Known about the structure:
The protein has 3 helices and no strands. By secondary structure, the protein is mainly α. It has a domain at 27-74.
Amino acid sequence: MITISSTLSLIGLFYITVFILKSKLHLLKFFCVICLLTFYYTLFLYGSGNWGLLAVMQKISIISSIFLILVLEYFTSQNDFKQINPDEQQIQTTNP
C-alpha cells in the first residue's frame, strides 16, 4: 500500500511542479522543488529503515504538501498559468 500511495503522490506532486515551473510564480517554483526533494528524502528514509527520522520527515512532507495545495488554491489565479504561444509573442523593436 505504501508503494502505491507514494507513487501516486509523487506523480501528482511532479505534475504540479511541472506546471508551476512553466509559470511566472518564482517563490512557488522554489517551494515545489523543496517539497519534491523532501518527499524523495522521506522515501529514501523509508527504504533505508531509519524509523526515528522517518516519523519526523513524514510529518514535514505531508504538511508541506498540504501547504502547497492550499497556496495554489487560494493565492493563484487562472492568469498565472496561461501558456504563451510563440506565434503570439511580439518583439518590440526600436527604430533609430
